[in-house]
Amino acid sequence: MELKRPRFRRPPLERAAWREWLIIVAPALLLVVAAFYITSRFVQPAPPKSIVITTGGESGAYYKFAQRYRTALKRDGIDLIIKPSAGSLQNLQRLRGAGNATPARRGKCNA
To answer: Which of 9, 20, 56, 109 could connect to 62 by a Cys-Cys bridge, CB 3.0–4.6 Å?
Structure first.
């Protein structure tokens, strides 16, 4: 004669169990959502670790200014990538270029 193992069945959740669960989980969930909302309002993203600047020709004054900026920014751990250009038209073409993610391209330039 073979013995059968009794099957364990969980009792269905009663209304009281659901109420207790909501009393514990709902305030915790609201607290987490409120914390994320408050954090998103006051915390600003970190500055970029590299910046691209377009200048005039390599013999011009703007290129030399950019080299000074590179030295100053290097102290703070920011890499400045200098791209010499043929002039204003090429600078505008670079700003309007496809896939460009500069602040001026996104419409957030303060200049």
So the answer is: 56
